[in-house]
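Q: How would the C-alpha cells look for this protein?
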Amino acid sequence: MIRNSSARHESVQGKPGHPDGALFDSKGSLKIICESRWVLFGTRWYRIGKGRSGCFGTTNILVGILSAFVFAEAMGPACTRRVRPYDGTVWNNPLPSYPAGVTHGTYHSAAMDVDVGYTIYLPPQYATNPTLSFPVIYDIYGGQASDENSEVPHYVPVLDNAVRSGQVPPMIMVFGNFGHNAKYMDAAPGSPMYGVLMVETTFIHELIPHIDATYRTIASKEGRAVQGGSGGGMAALRFAFKYPQMFSSTFGIAPAVDDIASNVMVNEPELMAAMFNNDPNLWQQNTVWDLANNNAANIRGLPIHVTIGSLDGLLPWNQDLYATLDRLGISHDPLEIISGYAHNIGYDLVGLEALQFAAKYFVPAQRRERR
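A: Here is the predicted structure in C-alpha cell form.
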C-alpha cells in the first residue's frame, strides 16, 4: 500500500519542473520526457517528442494491465530512468516521534539508487558506556504493506524491559525496510524490477555495513543475529542459510516456508512476472529448501530455532523443513509447537525467548575505542 503520494514521488526522485524533464500529470502520475522515445508508465505507453511548435506532445496507447510500474528505461543522456516498485514500496518512512531509545535513520542504497529508512533501538547502556560496542539483532517483519516501523511497537517494549530488568544483556535491534512484497529477495537480472527491488543486496551489503559503520556494534558473526515472523521468519532462515558466516543464530516465528515456486507461480503471478520473468527456477533457488540443500556444509553448526502454533496451517511445512535439515545433518533446536495457537504468535508471547536465544550465542558487549 502506498502511504501517500509525496512519499511515492520522493522515492523516484522526480519533481515538477525538474530540469531532467520529469513532470506530473493531472492525476499526480509521474511522466518522463524523452525526445523521440516510447515511455512505459503504468498501463499506458507514451510517445514523446517535440512537435513543430517546439512543445512536447504525447499520444497515449492503452496496452492493458501491466505487472510493473516502469516509467522509462535509460536510453542515453536525453532520458533519465525512473522506476516505481511494482508492489508500492515506499523506502523511507520516518514517523513524527518514537519511543525512548528508538530513532529513525536512512542510508543510500547504491543498488537501487534510493534512500532507505530503518529504525533502531539502542539500549540505555549505549549512552552511559560510550566505549562499549554491542551485539545486534536484525528483525524482519512479515506481511505486505509493512515497513521499518511496523514491528517497533510490538518488539521494542519487550526488548527494553528485558534489557532494563537484566533478563538479557544490552543489545541493539535494527528494523529494516524489506519492501512490501519482494519476498526479501533481489529481482532477477533482466526483469522489470531489477535494480528497483534489490532487497537481499540492500540488507546484506548496504544496511548491515551502514549499521556497523554508524553505530558501536560488534561487527562480526558473533555479534549479529537475524529473526522474524511469518514471511519475515522465512526471510530470517533464508538469510541465515545463505550467509551463515554473518549470523550467530536465527529464530523464526511461524516461518512462511510454503513459498515454493509451484505455489508462488499460481498465487502471485504479478510478483513472478515483475521480479523473476515467470521463471520458477529463478525463484526456487532462493528458497530455504534449495539453500539448505546447496549450502548444508556451511549451515551445519548454525543455531536454529523455530516456534509455531499447533493450529497454524504452516506447521506441516515447517515439519517438512525440519525433516530436510535432519536428512542433511543440519542440527537445530526441537521444533517448538505452541498448543492452541494458529498463525497469531506474537512477540508478547515468544519475544523474550527469542531475545534470550540470540543472547545465548552473542559475545558480550566489548570495550573499544569510540568511532
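Residues 1-80 have pLDDT under 50 and may be disordered.

Residues 199-214 form the longest helix (16 residues).

Upvote if useful.
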